[in-house]
Design brief:
Layout lengths: L13 E5 L3 H12 L3 E6 L4 H8 L4 E4 L12 E4 L4 H14 L2 E4 L12 E5 L2 E5 L6 H14 L4 H10 L1 H7 L3 H13 L1 H7 L3 H13 L8 E6 L10 H9 L2 E4 L5 H4 L7 E4 L4 H13 L3 E6 L17 E4 L8
Parallel strand pairs: 1-2, 1-4, 2-3, 4-5, 8-11, 8-12, 9-10, 9-11
Antiparallel strand pairs: 6-7
Helix pairs in contact: 7-8, 8-9
């Protein structure tokens, strides 16, 4: 990972945009949308910047950039057509420990602005670390088509009732199952139909239902030779749903890195029967436990598990890679 991804809270914080043209106007608009306190330094302003200035949404320092323009700024964007000016902004920012993005110039930039899919309050960002921004934009376009537009309202609704959800589902696995039902069930469907009040009523009805004992799952994934790029979508989904990873010898770290970040990891016992007993105890405690092994992965019978437990055997590799 070349860049460390983060999301910055810029609400009310001073940010500088150097340049007054169309590109600067686009960057200023994005910063204003994030709640930043924007100052533009430029001898002239694009029409959109002028409108924002007239509306009192930003400040204008009429003139040319000098290093002192960065005093007190949290970050800056250099959006001029003059690389010497952009370099001066980057150098002055480095001296003040102020992060600077130079538009379309990753060599001078201290941070990159990603391509964004906005489902407020959910934000999905894609970066190529400045190597190929057009690829990042193409990925964003595909994600725009895949991500439900109602994800934002659904997230906001869940956030409104977050405390009640946490109190109702103290068990993490049960809480995750509840959120899965919100995402895939009636609540999301009602939001999609433009019926937010009914969606909220449906959420509250789900919260009022009598508690159901959490039932765990056992998923077996054979990871083949251990190439993360060869895993199936089903295998990736299993890794993303895991509460616990039970990891056999030889499963490489790049595979484990694809799992949920808060999933706990345990080394599998030396024998498969012993592994099966541990899988069973974890599942009976309500966990979704994923057993990872190189090759094709063992059957339920090989793990010593009875037919009363449904063991999902997920193909780790595509058929042409077996």
């Amino acid at each position: 990972m070349k860049l460390f991804p983060l999301f910055a809270d810029l609400r009310g914080r001073p940010v500088l945009v150097v340049g007054g043209g169309e590109v600067a106007a686009r960057k200023a608009a994005a910063l204003l949308a994030a709640g930043a306190d924007v100052t533009v330094v430029a001898p002239e302003l694009h029409m959109d910047l002028r409108h924002a200035l007239d509306a009192g949404r930003l400040r204008w320092h009429e003139g040319y950039f000098v290093p002192e323009c960065l005093d007190g700024m949290w970050l800056a964007v250099a959006a001029t057509a003059d690389r010497a000016v952009n370099r001066a902004v980057a150098d002055a920012g480095a001296a003040r420990r102020c992060f600077v993005n130079v538009v379309d110039d990753p060599e001078l930039s201290h941070f990159q602005v990603p391509a964004v899919v906005d489902r407020d309050p959910v934000t999905i960002a894609v970066s190529s670390a400045g190597a190929a921004p057009m690829f990042a934009r193409r990925i964003r376009e595909r994600l725009e088509a895949l991500i439900d537009p109602q994800l934002g309202p659904l997230t906001a609704l869940a956030a409104k009732h977050r405390d009640a959800i946490r109190q109702r589902f103290a068990n993490l696995a049960a809480r995750r199952a509840f959120y899965d039902r919100l995402y895939e069930g009636e609540v999301a469907a009602l939001l999609r139909q433009g019926r937010p009040a009914e969606a909220e009523s449906a959420l509250l009805a789900e919260l009022a239902q009598r508690a159901v004992a959490s039932v765990g799952r056992i998923v077996v994934v054979g990871v083949g030779p251990g190439d993360p790029g060869s895993l199936t979508l089903a295998a990736l989904r299993a890794l993303n749903l895991a509460d616990v990873l039970l990891v056999a010898d030889g499963v490489p770290e790049p595979i484990l890195a694809l799992a949920r970040k808060d999933a706990s990891r345990r080394p599998a016992p030396a024998g498969r029967i012993e592994s099966g007993r541990l899988l069973l105890s974890l599942a009976e405690a309500g966990h979704t436990v994923v057993y990872l092994e190189r090759g094709g992965g063992p059957t339920a019978k090989a793990l010593g598990l009875s037919d009363s437990w449904v063991v999902e055997q997920v193909p780790g590799l595509h058929a042409d890679q077996d």
